[in-house]
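Inputs:
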Amino acid sequence: MTNDSDGLRTPLGRVRFLGAARNGTGEAWLMHVTSLALIPLTLYFVWLVLDLLHMDYNGVREELGRPIPAILLLAFIIAGIVHMELGMRSVIVDYIHGGSRAWALAANTCFCALLALACVYAALRVGFT
Amino acid sequence: MTTNDAAAGKRRSRPLSPHLGIYKLTMTMAMSIAHRISGGALYVGVLLLAWFLIAASADAAAFGVFSAFIESIIGRLILFGFTWALFHHLLGGIRHFLWDAGYGMDAPLRDQLAWATLIGGFALTIVVWAIGYAVR
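Outputs:
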């Protein structure tokens, strides 16, 4: 790697923006924590949906208004959407190169943030109205 | 050569690791791709959960529209696909945890785990849907 072709550029200048520095392990750690949390939360979510299947509008609202289903559903939403944001981020970094990568990463974050806000808002509104 | 490129202001293209095209397809590779596909499906599928929650938070009419969609043939197919993606991705994630812990990397076991992900994902989907129809 040592050559003079970069002229006066410093070693730091040559590697900057080429990949993870300092924050790479944080992303991997968050991915693992959310996936671990999602094992029981997903199983609970499936159980909750099976429970909601034979309920009407009022029954669904009553069930989602109870503390434990509401809290576990919120946990599933937040862990799930953080997890999918990180997952799509690694897919984008793998397959999209050049200038459109930054736009794709920004679009991914904005989409996930909006989706999380919508789900959390709606879930809380069911519980509190 | 490199000196000329640098002088012309060109960026040298950085080396990339070998990609899918040059390898023979193996079971673990197929399940790696399936993990990404199921993850991508869930990424879009969460919109269905958002719709459900927003409808439930709005009024009975909005909830009726969602219920009618999810009970239609297309709605059921989408929900079935969502269920499969959820279980496939869940089992794939557990397999990755085993690998991270250093288990199941050897030749026979890693393929068996990959098959278990594939078969288990379909099996759990069918079991949950059987329960779903039984409790109605």
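Remarks. The domain at 26-135 of chain B is CATH 1.20.1300.10 (3 helical TM bundles of succinate and fumarate reductases). Chain B has a mean pLDDT of 90.
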